[in-house]
Design goal:
Two copies of one chain form a homodimer. In chain A, the strands form four sheets. A three-stranded antiparallel beta sheet of chain A has the order 3-4-7, with no helix packed on it. Chain A has a two-stranded antiparallel sheet with strand order 1-2. Chain A has a two-stranded antiparallel sheet with strand order 5-6. In chain A, 46% of the residues are buried. In chain A, helix 3 packs across helix 4 (156-169) and helix 3 (87-109) crosses helix 5. Chain A is 33% helix and 33% strand. By secondary structure, chain A is α+β, with helices and mostly antiparallel strands. Chain A is globular, with a radius of gyration of 20 Å. The interface between A and B is large, with 138 and 138 residues.
C-alpha cells in the first residue's frame, strides 16, 4: 500500500513520469508533439471544435478513444445566444488549466502532496479595438490577472517555489505571454 | 419576411450589431469588458473551469443564466486519463472560435451570406521545453497553422477580404500572436 501511495502522488504516476523523462533523454525525437483542433461554424457566434488525434512520442496516437467537443458562443450583449463560453474566456481556461497541470506535475515530481489548487483569472479589454472603432485599443486583453490558492503538505516557501516553476514551464503561459507565430491560409469557395 | 431575412444574416442580428456600434461611439465607456474563469484542480491532469459572470457595457452582466464548465486533461502518454482536451488543445479551440466568430460577424456586417466555415489548426511543440530538459526549446508551440474553408455568396476575392479583416480584428488571434502581460499571485497554504 505504501509503495502504491508513493508511486501515485497528486493523481500522477511519478514512476511513469520519471520513466518518460528518461525515455526522452535517451531518444529526443520522442519529444515532438503536434496537437490539433477542427472547428465548424454552426450559426452566428456558435461554433464547435472537435479534438481527438495528435502526434507524439514518435507516433500518431491511438490511445485516445473519445472525440472531445467544445462549444463557443457569445452572450447577448455581444450578439450571441450563450451557446458556450466566448473565445476569450476559453483562452483564460486554457491558461488556468495549463498552469494548474504544470503545478500538479511539478509538485508530484518534488514530493509535495497538494490538497487544493484553485485559480481565478480576469482579462480586461476595451472592445473598441476588436470592433475596429479605435486603433488606440488592442483587440485582445490588455492584461490578465491570475490568482492562485494552493494548499499542500509543504512549507509556504516550497509551495511558492512549485508555483514559480510551473509558471516557468507552462506551455500555455509561454504562448500567452510571449506569443506564437500563426500561419493562416484560406480556401474560399464562392457559391453565388 | 424579406425584412427579417435582411436583419438576421449568418445568424447575427445586424440591426443590433450596428446599434451596438453606434451606442459605443456615443458612450465609449460601454466598450470596457472584463471576462473571467475560475479553475479548480480535481486530480492529476484533470481540472475544470467554471465560467459565468463578466463585466461589460457598463454593468455586471445579468443576462447569462447558465454556468459553463470546461474540463481539461492529458492523454495517457502525458500522464493523464483523457478527462478533456489538454490545455494546448484548448488554446487552439480558443483561436479557432475567435477567428470564426470574427469572420461570421464581419461577413454579416458586409452583406456576405456564409454557407460554411471550417478550420483545422495544428500546433507543433517539442516537450523538452516544458519538461525542463532542454532550454533550446520553448515551452509552447513553435508555430500554429490555421487552414480555413469558407463558402459563401460572394466572389472569392471578397471572401478572402472577410477572412483578412477577421484576422486583423480577432481578440484571441491578437493575444496568441502578440502575447499579453500576465500578473500571477499566489496564496500558499501549508497544511502539513
Amino acid at each position: 500500500m505504501t509503495e502504491i501511495a508513493e508511486k501515485i502522488r497528486n493523481g500522477v504516476n511519478t514512476e511513469q513520469m520519471f520513466g518518460t523523462l528518461d525515455a526522452i533523454k535517451a531518444q529526443p525525437e520522442l519529444a515532438r508533439f503536434q496537437f490539433r483542433a477542427t472547428n465548424r461554424w454552426i450559426g452566428g457566434a456558435h461554433n464547435r471544435s472537435t479534438i481527438k488525434g495528435f502526434w507524439g512520442a514518435g507516433q500518431e496516437d491511438t490511445s485516445r478513444e473519445q472525440t472531445f467537443t467544445v462549444d463557443a458562443g457569445e452572450p447577448a450583449v455581444l450578439l450571441g445566444f450563450d451557446t458556450g463560453p466566448n473565445p476569450a474566456e476559453h483562452l483564460l481556461h486554457a491558461l488556468a488549466a495549463c498552469l494548474t497541470t504544470s503545478l500538479v506535475y511539478v509538485a508530484a515530481a518534488r514530493g509535495v502532496r497538494l490538497t487544493e489548487v484553485e485559480s481565478t483569472l480576469e482579462g480586461d479589454m476595451d472592445v473598441r479595438g476588436c470592433l475596429g472603432l479605435d486603433d488606440d485599443y488592442r483587440n485582445g486583453f490588455e492584461r490578465i490577472r491570475v490568482s492562485f490558492k494552493v494548499s499542500g503538505d509543504a512549507p509556504e516557501e516550497k509551495l511558492r517555489e512549485v508555483v514559480a516553476r510551473a509558471q516557468k514551464r507552462s506551455a500555455v503561459y509561454d504562448m500567452v505571454t510571449n506569443g506564437v507565430p500563426v500561419e493562416l491560409e484560406v480556401a474560399p469557395c464562392s457559391v453565388s
